[in-house]
Amino acid sequence: MSNKYEKIENEISGQTQDRQPGFENEMNPKPIFDDENYKGSEKLKGKTALITGGDSGIGKAVAIAFAKEGANVAIAYLDEHEDAKETVKLIENYGVKALSIATDISDDENCEKLVEQVIGEFCQLNILVNNAGKQFPTKNFLEITPDQLQETFSTNIYSMFYLTQAALPHMSKGDTIVNTSSVTAYRGAPELIDYSATKGAITSFTRSLALNLVEKGIRVNAVAPGPIWTPLIPATFDAETVEKHGDSNPTGRRGQPAENAPAYVFLASNDSSYITGQTIHVDGGDFVGS
Question: Which residues are identified as catalytic?
Protein backbone atom coordinates (compact mmCIF):
# COMPACT_ATOMS: atom_id res chain seq x y z
CA MET A 1 0.00 0.00 0.00
CA SER A 2 1.36 3.41 -0.94
CA ASN A 3 2.09 5.55 2.11
CA LYS A 4 0.33 8.60 0.70
CA TYR A 5 -2.91 6.70 0.17
CA GLU A 6 -2.69 5.13 3.60
CA LYS A 7 -2.00 8.53 5.17
CA ILE A 8 -5.02 10.26 3.62
CA GLU A 9 -7.25 7.33 4.58
CA ASN A 10 -6.31 7.82 8.20
CA GLU A 11 -7.18 11.52 7.96
CA ILE A 12 -10.72 11.07 6.61
CA SER A 13 -13.50 11.47 9.16
CA GLY A 14 -17.28 11.53 8.90
CA GLN A 15 -18.53 14.50 6.88
CA THR A 16 -21.53 15.34 4.77
CA GLN A 17 -22.71 17.79 2.13
CA ASP A 18 -26.30 18.79 1.53
CA ARG A 19 -26.57 18.34 -2.24
CA GLN A 20 -25.27 16.36 -5.18
CA PRO A 21 -23.00 15.97 -7.02
CA GLY A 22 -20.94 17.64 -4.28
CA PHE A 23 -18.11 20.13 -3.95
CA GLU A 24 -14.50 19.04 -3.74
CA ASN A 25 -13.44 22.32 -2.12
CA GLU A 26 -15.58 21.44 0.92
CA MET A 27 -13.96 18.02 1.47
CA ASN A 28 -11.42 17.46 4.23
CA PRO A 29 -9.00 16.09 3.30
CA LYS A 30 -9.36 16.66 -0.42
CA PRO A 31 -9.02 13.64 -2.71
CA ILE A 32 -5.69 12.81 -4.33
CA PHE A 33 -6.30 13.73 -7.95
CA ASP A 34 -2.72 13.90 -9.21
CA ASP A 35 -0.03 11.25 -8.80
CA GLU A 36 3.28 13.10 -8.95
CA ASN A 37 4.97 9.84 -9.95
CA TYR A 38 2.86 9.64 -13.11
CA LYS A 39 4.87 11.09 -15.98
CA GLY A 40 3.24 11.69 -19.34
CA SER A 41 4.79 10.45 -22.58
CA GLU A 42 2.69 12.24 -25.24
CA LYS A 43 0.28 9.32 -25.62
CA LEU A 44 -2.56 11.75 -26.35
CA LYS A 45 -0.63 14.57 -27.98
CA GLY A 46 -2.74 16.52 -30.46
CA LYS A 47 -5.99 15.00 -29.20
CA THR A 48 -9.01 16.78 -27.74
CA ALA A 49 -10.98 15.20 -24.91
CA LEU A 50 -14.36 15.99 -23.40
CA ILE A 51 -14.91 14.75 -19.84
CA THR A 52 -18.24 15.03 -18.06
CA GLY A 53 -18.04 15.52 -14.31
CA GLY A 54 -14.52 16.76 -15.00
CA ASP A 55 -14.44 19.42 -12.30
CA SER A 56 -13.68 17.01 -9.45
CA GLY A 57 -13.19 13.42 -8.37
CA ILE A 58 -12.37 10.81 -11.01
CA GLY A 59 -13.15 13.22 -13.84
CA LYS A 60 -10.65 15.74 -12.52
CA ALA A 61 -7.94 13.10 -12.13
CA VAL A 62 -8.55 11.91 -15.69
CA ALA A 63 -8.44 15.46 -17.02
CA ILE A 64 -5.06 16.08 -15.40
CA ALA A 65 -3.65 12.75 -16.61
CA PHE A 66 -4.86 13.49 -20.15
CA ALA A 67 -3.20 16.92 -19.96
CA LYS A 68 0.06 15.27 -18.89
CA GLU A 69 -0.22 13.13 -22.02
CA GLY A 70 -0.59 16.19 -24.24
CA ALA A 71 -4.35 16.37 -24.81
CA ASN A 72 -6.41 19.55 -24.82
CA VAL A 73 -9.24 19.00 -22.36
CA ALA A 74 -12.81 20.27 -22.06
CA ILE A 75 -14.61 19.54 -18.80
CA ALA A 76 -18.37 19.65 -18.35
CA TYR A 77 -19.87 20.13 -14.90
CA LEU A 78 -23.15 21.16 -13.29
CA ASP A 79 -22.48 24.27 -11.18
CA GLU A 80 -19.37 23.58 -9.09
CA HIS A 81 -17.67 26.68 -10.46
CA GLU A 82 -14.84 26.92 -7.92
CA ASP A 83 -13.85 23.29 -8.46
CA ALA A 84 -13.96 23.71 -12.23
CA LYS A 85 -11.82 26.86 -12.10
CA GLU A 86 -9.12 25.03 -10.14
CA THR A 87 -9.19 22.07 -12.53
CA VAL A 88 -8.80 24.28 -15.58
CA LYS A 89 -5.76 25.92 -13.98
CA LEU A 90 -4.20 22.53 -13.25
CA ILE A 91 -4.81 21.34 -16.82
CA GLU A 92 -3.22 24.47 -18.27
CA ASN A 93 -0.15 23.97 -16.07
CA TYR A 94 0.85 21.18 -18.45
CA GLY A 95 0.97 23.47 -21.47
CA VAL A 96 -2.29 22.39 -23.09
CA LYS A 97 -5.60 24.16 -23.60
CA ALA A 98 -8.55 23.78 -21.24
CA LEU A 99 -12.23 24.66 -21.43
CA SER A 100 -14.88 24.40 -18.71
CA ILE A 101 -18.60 24.36 -19.49
CA ALA A 102 -21.38 24.44 -16.91
CA THR A 103 -24.41 22.52 -18.12
CA ASP A 104 -26.98 19.87 -17.20
CA ILE A 105 -26.19 16.84 -19.36
CA SER A 106 -29.48 15.14 -18.50
CA ASP A 107 -31.02 17.34 -21.22
CA ASP A 108 -30.40 16.31 -24.83
CA GLU A 109 -30.30 19.87 -26.18
CA ASN A 110 -27.66 20.79 -23.61
CA CYS A 111 -25.55 17.87 -24.79
CA GLU A 112 -25.75 19.06 -28.39
CA LYS A 113 -24.73 22.58 -27.35
CA LEU A 114 -21.90 21.18 -25.22
CA VAL A 115 -20.35 19.34 -28.15
CA GLU A 116 -20.85 22.40 -30.37
CA GLN A 117 -18.89 24.50 -27.86
CA VAL A 118 -16.06 21.98 -27.76
CA ILE A 119 -15.85 21.84 -31.54
CA GLY A 120 -16.04 25.63 -31.72
CA GLU A 121 -13.09 25.96 -29.35
CA PHE A 122 -10.86 23.08 -30.49
CA CYS A 123 -12.18 22.19 -33.98
CA GLN A 124 -12.04 18.48 -33.11
CA LEU A 125 -13.14 15.87 -30.59
CA ASN A 126 -11.19 12.62 -30.28
CA ILE A 127 -11.94 11.30 -26.81
CA LEU A 128 -15.30 11.30 -25.04
CA VAL A 129 -15.33 10.35 -21.36
CA ASN A 130 -18.88 9.83 -20.08
CA ASN A 131 -18.24 10.09 -16.36
CA ALA A 132 -20.84 12.24 -14.56
CA GLY A 133 -23.31 10.51 -12.25
CA LYS A 134 -25.64 10.72 -9.29
CA GLN A 135 -26.84 8.27 -6.64
CA PHE A 136 -29.60 8.38 -4.03
CA PRO A 137 -29.37 5.71 -1.31
CA THR A 138 -32.79 4.22 -0.52
CA LYS A 139 -33.11 1.34 1.93
CA ASN A 140 -36.73 0.55 1.09
CA PHE A 141 -37.14 -0.33 -2.59
CA LEU A 142 -40.77 0.82 -2.44
CA GLU A 143 -39.59 4.34 -1.62
CA ILE A 144 -37.77 4.84 -4.93
CA THR A 145 -40.00 7.47 -6.50
CA PRO A 146 -40.60 8.02 -10.22
CA ASP A 147 -38.86 11.39 -9.91
CA GLN A 148 -35.77 9.83 -8.33
CA LEU A 149 -35.72 7.09 -10.95
CA GLN A 150 -35.99 9.64 -13.74
CA GLU A 151 -33.21 11.85 -12.32
CA THR A 152 -30.84 8.92 -11.79
CA PHE A 153 -31.37 7.45 -15.25
CA SER A 154 -31.36 10.84 -16.99
CA THR A 155 -28.02 11.83 -15.49
CA ASN A 156 -26.26 8.47 -15.50
CA ILE A 157 -27.26 6.73 -18.73
CA TYR A 158 -29.56 8.89 -20.89
CA SER A 159 -26.82 11.52 -20.98
CA MET A 160 -24.43 8.97 -22.47
CA PHE A 161 -26.81 8.39 -25.36
CA TYR A 162 -27.31 12.13 -25.87
CA LEU A 163 -23.62 13.04 -25.71
CA THR A 164 -22.41 10.15 -27.80
CA GLN A 165 -24.97 10.89 -30.50
CA ALA A 166 -23.86 14.53 -30.50
CA ALA A 167 -20.15 13.64 -30.53
CA LEU A 168 -20.02 10.85 -33.10
CA PRO A 169 -20.42 13.04 -36.22
CA HIS A 170 -17.15 14.71 -35.18
CA MET A 171 -15.24 11.50 -34.38
CA SER A 172 -13.37 9.22 -36.76
CA LYS A 173 -11.16 6.15 -36.97
CA GLY A 174 -8.78 5.94 -34.02
CA ASP A 175 -10.97 8.00 -31.70
CA THR A 176 -12.24 6.58 -28.43
CA ILE A 177 -15.10 6.61 -25.94
CA VAL A 178 -14.61 5.68 -22.28
CA ASN A 179 -17.61 5.27 -19.97
CA THR A 180 -17.61 5.19 -16.18
CA SER A 181 -19.47 2.16 -14.88
CA SER A 182 -19.20 0.90 -11.27
CA VAL A 183 -18.50 -2.15 -9.16
CA THR A 184 -22.19 -1.97 -8.20
CA ALA A 185 -23.10 -3.13 -11.71
CA TYR A 186 -21.35 -6.42 -10.99
CA ARG A 187 -21.88 -7.16 -7.29
CA GLY A 188 -25.07 -5.16 -6.70
CA ALA A 189 -25.86 -2.66 -3.95
CA PRO A 190 -29.00 -3.16 -1.85
CA GLU A 191 -29.47 0.56 -1.09
CA LEU A 192 -28.49 1.80 -4.55
CA ILE A 193 -30.79 -0.24 -6.77
CA ASP A 194 -31.61 2.47 -9.30
CA TYR A 195 -27.98 3.65 -9.43
CA SER A 196 -26.72 0.08 -9.87
CA ALA A 197 -29.27 -0.47 -12.62
CA THR A 198 -27.90 2.52 -14.54
CA LYS A 199 -24.37 1.21 -14.13
CA GLY A 200 -25.44 -2.18 -15.45
CA ALA A 201 -27.00 -0.36 -18.39
CA ILE A 202 -23.72 1.47 -18.95
CA THR A 203 -21.85 -1.82 -19.14
CA SER A 204 -24.29 -3.16 -21.74
CA PHE A 205 -24.25 0.17 -23.57
CA THR A 206 -20.46 -0.04 -23.74
CA ARG A 207 -20.44 -3.57 -25.15
CA SER A 208 -23.17 -2.94 -27.70
CA LEU A 209 -21.89 0.45 -28.86
CA ALA A 210 -18.40 -1.03 -29.27
CA LEU A 211 -19.78 -3.61 -31.69
CA ASN A 212 -21.82 -0.96 -33.49
CA LEU A 213 -18.83 1.31 -34.04
CA VAL A 214 -16.10 -1.26 -34.65
CA GLU A 215 -16.31 -0.88 -38.43
CA LYS A 216 -15.77 2.87 -38.03
CA GLY A 217 -12.59 2.22 -36.05
CA ILE A 218 -13.94 3.95 -32.95
CA ARG A 219 -13.31 1.98 -29.78
CA VAL A 220 -15.64 2.00 -26.76
CA ASN A 221 -14.64 0.77 -23.31
CA ALA A 222 -15.42 1.39 -19.67
CA VAL A 223 -13.87 1.67 -16.23
CA ALA A 224 -15.71 0.29 -13.20
CA PRO A 225 -14.42 1.99 -10.05
CA GLY A 226 -14.96 0.63 -6.57
CA PRO A 227 -15.26 2.83 -3.45
CA ILE A 228 -13.41 6.04 -4.38
CA TRP A 229 -13.01 9.22 -2.30
CA THR A 230 -14.89 11.78 -4.41
CA PRO A 231 -17.37 14.59 -3.61
CA LEU A 232 -20.22 12.22 -4.42
CA ILE A 233 -19.52 10.27 -1.21
CA PRO A 234 -20.10 13.01 1.41
CA ALA A 235 -22.86 14.41 -0.82
CA THR A 236 -24.63 11.05 -0.76
CA PHE A 237 -24.17 9.38 2.63
CA ASP A 238 -24.44 10.25 6.31
CA ALA A 239 -21.31 10.93 8.35
CA GLU A 240 -21.10 7.40 9.79
CA THR A 241 -21.27 5.78 6.36
CA VAL A 242 -18.68 8.21 4.99
CA GLU A 243 -16.35 7.31 7.86
CA LYS A 244 -16.64 3.58 7.09
CA HIS A 245 -16.63 3.96 3.29
CA GLY A 246 -14.27 1.37 1.82
CA ASP A 247 -13.62 -0.44 5.11
CA SER A 248 -14.86 -3.77 3.75
CA ASN A 249 -12.65 -3.55 0.67
CA PRO A 250 -10.01 -6.32 0.48
CA THR A 251 -7.33 -3.61 0.57
CA GLY A 252 -8.85 -2.22 3.77
CA ARG A 253 -9.31 1.26 2.34
CA ARG A 254 -11.14 3.33 -0.25
CA GLY A 255 -9.39 4.31 -3.46
CA GLN A 256 -8.36 7.74 -4.70
CA PRO A 257 -9.25 9.39 -8.04
CA ALA A 258 -5.58 9.38 -9.10
CA GLU A 259 -5.59 5.59 -8.90
CA ASN A 260 -8.28 5.45 -11.60
CA ALA A 261 -6.77 7.89 -14.10
CA PRO A 262 -4.18 5.55 -15.70
CA ALA A 263 -6.94 3.13 -16.74
CA TYR A 264 -8.67 5.93 -18.64
CA VAL A 265 -5.40 6.98 -20.28
CA PHE A 266 -4.80 3.38 -21.36
CA LEU A 267 -8.27 3.03 -22.89
CA ALA A 268 -8.10 6.45 -24.57
CA SER A 269 -4.68 5.87 -26.09
CA ASN A 270 -3.35 3.60 -28.80
CA ASP A 271 -1.89 1.34 -26.10
CA SER A 272 -5.31 -0.35 -26.08
CA SER A 273 -5.72 -0.50 -29.86
CA TYR A 274 -6.95 -4.12 -29.78
CA ILE A 275 -9.38 -3.60 -26.91
CA THR A 276 -13.02 -2.61 -27.33
CA GLY A 277 -16.25 -3.41 -25.50
CA GLN A 278 -14.34 -4.18 -22.30
CA THR A 279 -14.37 -2.93 -18.71
CA ILE A 280 -11.37 -2.37 -16.46
CA HIS A 281 -12.15 -2.90 -12.78
CA VAL A 282 -10.36 -0.42 -10.50
CA ASP A 283 -11.85 -1.57 -7.22
CA GLY A 284 -9.15 -2.90 -4.91
CA GLY A 285 -10.37 -6.45 -5.37
CA ASP A 286 -13.95 -5.59 -4.39
CA PHE A 287 -15.27 -7.56 -7.37
CA VAL A 288 -13.77 -10.76 -8.72
CA GLY A 289 -15.61 -12.44 -11.56
CA SER A 290 -16.47 -12.25 -15.24
Answer: 195
SS3 of residue 104 by DSSP: coil
Distances in Å between the Cα of 156 and the Cα atoms of 105, 151, 204 are 9, 8, 13
Closest of 191, 185, 171, 77 to residue 127, by C-alpha: 171
pLDDT tens sequence across 218-236: 999 999 999 999 999 999 9
Residue 207 belongs to what H/E stretch?
helix 193-213
Average pLDDT of the residues in 179-183: 98
Cα angle value 179/182/186 (rounded, 5°) = 120
At 285 the pLDDT is 94
Number of alpha helices (DSSP H) and beta strands (DSSP E) in the chain: 11, 7
The C-alpha atoms of residue 66 and residue 164 are separated, in whole angstroms, by 19
- Smallest CA-to-CA distance from 103 within 92, 117, 90 is with 117
Strands (E), 30-113: 48-52, 72-77, 98-102
Virtual CA dihedral for 77, 83, 85, 88, nearest 10 degrees? Answer: -70
Alpha-carbon radius of gyration of the chain: 18
Residue partners of 23: CB distance under 8 A and separation at least 6: 17, 56, 80, 82, 83, 231, 235
Range list of β-strands (E), the chain: 48-52, 72-77, 98-102, 127-130, 176-180, 219-225, 279-282
- Residue 139 gets which letter from DSSP? S
- CA angle (98, 103, 104) in 5-degree steps: 140
Mean pLDDT of 111-119: 98
Measure CA 24 to chain center. 14
